[in-house]
Design goal:
By secondary structure, the protein is an alpha+beta fold. It contains 19 helices and 39 strands. It has a 7-stranded mixed sheet with strand order 26-30-31-35-34-33-32, sandwiched between helices. Strands 3, 4, 5, 6, 7 and 10 form a 6-stranded antiparallel sheet that branches. The chain has a 5-stranded mixed sheet with strand order 12-15-18-19-20. A hairpin with a 2-residue loop joins strand 30 and strand 31. The chain is extended.
Length: about 800
């Protein structure tokens, strides 16, 4: 959004440089992307002609320049290398103003300089430092005021706003913010209000619940659609809008000044003597101002006369009822349309306008009448005419919610004491009303343009913005103390970021893919199109369905990397997956990861690369799931068709399957032209979120200061005993003891149906160094538990 500095000054007296103003806007939470300076910000700079150039007696780089000026001959000292005799240049005399600087008498290397020759950046006509003096047109007469060659100094700010602040999408809105921050009065523009004679058009709102909450209109007859005055055209050009004619320009001017979009219709093209705000009819045709014919649907809100649609509400007017140079009678519209409604229309037709950008964020519903009054005053001033009465249809007037709080509440949130008078000033300027009850509670009613203020947390944020985040009090060590609050349902936390951080820490790279897949993908993964969500209007071929899992997207990532010579990969994605349940689409969040090739060489500098495999991926899955009780891994009894039937495990949560882990089926890889083994896991995250509680903090484990005692234990167990059962027995016998499986042996020298495993233990205490007797006792306890639960025998 563009903001013109001089336009802001209509509402607030500012004495800041453009750079200083940009800093204030940044403090308020707006991102200033660019400052474009225009015009001349200087006084008493006149054209002079160089008559002669002499060397400076005390410097090799300086010159003595003799000039012909409006006040006679003068000499200045100059170091520029681009000057030459006969040139016309800008001369600043003693007392001339350059921005905020006034030129003082100067003696340079022993020679008095009677002024200064100026470069373009010194005059404020160039954004960057210039190497030489500004050379003027030689036809410019000596003594010409250089300021007359350029427009008045101004600055255009390109500002980026957050979606929740539509009130800032105007010069009035920005001025309101600065008024609170700088403690300056906000100047109110008073427009002459015309009662008008005769009725306006009849207005019927057929969509007041979810389409239009307020519609205001007025007729003005006998206007002369002339050219807009120069001041209006200059301001609109600064906003990037080409002036057309006075009636159209006035509606645009109102939008940029107070932020309320308007529209003007040619009254003589409206039929039926009424305005209807309704949903479009199925396949209703509409020719917009951009000369594009559009076919509407019942989800599109339109403004219609007695017979046809004349505007796509909040987005764009119709061609047939547009303002023309010969227009004599007009109907002015000021309305409030519900943001979701305008957002859907704008996106459906890929049509974003200055009006739609404001309506889809939410304009001030109380600004409808003010916009009509302002536009009326401007029309009558510039074009003349006779206004009718105003027809204001407002079925359910807006009633702002009152926020009750105490200053102590805000201090607890921010962790600092706040001056009460400053707080009164902030909220007094910010809201429509501020009262203090007998009990000491503050009752704040926000203005209708600030619908984002709903509770004390919002008010704490506002106080912090205006006081300045950099001014939040801190202790001597630089820390700030605030009270930590949890939401009403802290368990409903999206833990995708937790998993993503963990996998990234393990060396995986994150992928972001589209949610769309093809019929071919579904067939390769044996998904029926009856259980997949089909898209009615796919963006392109191969995007006809919403993906039922993440693996098909990740395999495409591997194939793409493989084509560029990247074969050693560890990738993951956290995203949505979709399915049909009883005929209705269901979406959930899943986490998927794949590994293939070898371990990255740069991460194992002194060791040879090793081939990644099943256990490497299983270790990654166990790592990120270790904090969740009830998660286990079991060999799949029925592996998915796209996974290897013999190398696949189910990921279980309390014995309920939530995912899979294993080797991707070779035939699946062949279909994607992947020429190496791929290992993958994927599981549903939503089921795990229910177990996550943000209030249950896991404390960091204290590291023992004493050495560990190592022991190896080899036992013989039945072949059909899984390691998960071994793990459960070890957890019961020695819950705090660290161990690793270091060897698995199946072969000769063992009884039939047996296998041997070797476990390496680290025994350590936080209180002391363990004796051999204590360690041996712990080993005996572990062996006894393995023997009791699993029938293990010491090898």
């Amino acid at each position: 959004m563009k903001i013109l500095y001089s336009w802001l000054k209509d509402f607030i007296d500012l004495d800041l440089t453009p750079e200083e103003l940009a800093g204030k806007l940044t403090v308020l939470g707006m991102e200033v992307e660019e400052i474009k300076k225009t015009g001349a910000d200087f006084d008493d700079i006149y054209a002079a002609k160089i008559v002669k150039i002499n060397a400076h007696p005390n410097s090799e780089k300086l010159h003595l320049v003799d000039l012909e000026t409006k006040d006679g001959a003068k000499r200045v000292v100059c170091g520029a290398q681009n000057i030459a005799e006969g040139q016309t240049v800008p001369l600043a005399n003693v007392g001339s103003r350059l921005g905020k600087i006034y030129l003082k008498p100067a003696e340079i290397r022993g020679v008095v300089s009677e002024g200064m020759l100026c470069s373009a950046d010194e005059l404020g006509l160039a954004a960057e430092r210039q190497k030489g003096i500004m050379i003027l047109d030689p036809k410019i007469p000596v003594g010409t005021d250089v300021k007359t060659l350029y427009g008045k100094a101004d600055a255009i700010f390109e500002v980026s706003l957050t979606p929740n602040r539509p009130d800032l999408m105007s010069h009035l809105g920005i001025a309101r913010e600065l008024s609170v921050l700088l403690n300056l009065p906000l100047k109110k523009k008073e427009w002459k209000k015309y009662k008008g004679e005769g009725p306006a058009l009849k207005i019927n709102i057929h969509t007041q619940d979810d389409g239009c909450a307020r519609y205001t209109g007025r007729i003005i007859r006998g206007v002369k659609n002339t050219e807009s005055p120069a001041w209006m055209k200059e301001r609109l050009l600064a906003m990037g809008v080409n002036p057309k004619n006075a009636l159209v320009d006035i509606t645009n001017y109102v939008l940029f000044e107070i932020g309320h979009p308007m529209h003007a219709f040619d009254l003589n093209h409206l039929e039926g003597g009424e305005i209807n705000v309704r949903w479009a009819q199925e396949n209703e045709n509409f020719l917009a101002l951009d000369d594009t014919q559009r076919t509407l649907t019942p989800q599109s809100l339109v403004i219609a006369d007695g017979k046809k649609a004349v505007a796509l509400a909040g987005v764009m007017g119709g061609k047939g009822d547009s303002i023309l140079p010969e227009t004599k009678d007009i109907f002015l519209e000021g309305a409030y349309f519900y943001p979701p409604c305008i957002n859907k229309t704008s996106k459906k037709f890929a049509l974003s306008t200055e009006s739609s950008q404001r309506f889809e964020r939410g304009v001030d519903i109380e600004g409808c009448l003010n916009s009509i009054e302002m536009a009326t005053a401007l029309v009558l001033e510039i074009c003349g005419g006779e206004p009718s009465e105003i027809n204001d249809v407002y079925p359910n007037p807006y009633r702002p919610a009152q926020i009750e709080f105490k200053p102590e509440d805000l201090e607890k949130i921010l962790g600092m004491e706040i001056d009460r008078e400053r707080l009164k000033d902030i909220f007094g300027r910010l809201g429509a009303d501020l009262r203090i009850s007998d009990s000491g509670a503050w009752l704040f009613t926000p203005g209708s343009y600030r619908r984002d203020l709903n509770h004390k947390w919002d008010l704490a944020e506002e106080a912090a913005r205006y006081i300045g985040l950099e001014n939040l009090a801190s202790d001597g060590d630089g820390t700030t103390h605030a009270t930590l609050y949890f939401g009403e349902n802290p368990k409903a936390v999206d833990i995708g970021e937790k998993f993503s951080d963990a996998l990234a820490g393990l060396g995986f790279y994150e992928c972001k893919n589209f949610d769309f897949v093809s019929q071919k993908d579904l067939n390769l993964f044996s998904f029926s199109d009856k259980t997949a969500v089909e898209i009615k209007n796919p963006l392109a071929d191969g995007m006809e369905f919403l993906r039922p899992n993440l693996l098909m997207s990740l395999l495409k990532n591997i194939a793409l990397n493989q084509n560029f010579g990247r074969h050693d990969l560890a990738l993951f994605e956290y995203g949505k997956t979709f399915s049909l349940q009883k005929g209705f689409p269901l979406e959930t969040f899943s986490l998927g990861a794949v590994m293939c090739g070898k371990t990255p060489r740069e991460k194992f500098f002194m060791n040879p690369q090793c081939k990644v495999g099943f256990y490497g991926l299983k270790g990654a899955a166990e790592n990120i799931l270790r904090d969740f009780e009830g998660v286990t891994f079991q060999p799949s009894k029925s592996a998915p068709s796209y996974m290897h039937p013999k190398i696949c495990m189910d990921i279980l949560l309390n014995n309920k399957k939530i995912g899979f882990l294993g080797q991707v089926h070779p035939l699946t890889l062949k279909a994607y032209d992947i020429k190496q083994e791929v290992y993958a896991f994927e599981f549903d995250v939503k089921n795990l979120e229910k177990l996550f509680d943000a209030q249950q903090f896991k404390k960091a484990r204290e590291i023992s200061a004493f050495p560990a005692s190592k022991r190896d234990l080899s036992v013989v167990i039945d072949k059909n005993i899984t390691f998960d059962k071994v793990r459960q027995a070890l957890k019961a016998a020695a819950p705090d003891t660290k161990y690793n499986l270091t060897d698995l042996y199946q072969g000769s020298n063992l009884p039939e149906g047996k296998k041997s495993i070797t476990l390496s233990f680290d025994f350590i205490s936080k209180e002391k160094t363990l004796t051999d007797a204590e360690v041996n006792k712990a080993v005996e306890a572990i062996l006894a538990k393995l023997k009791t639960d699993l029938g293990a025998e010491l090898r």
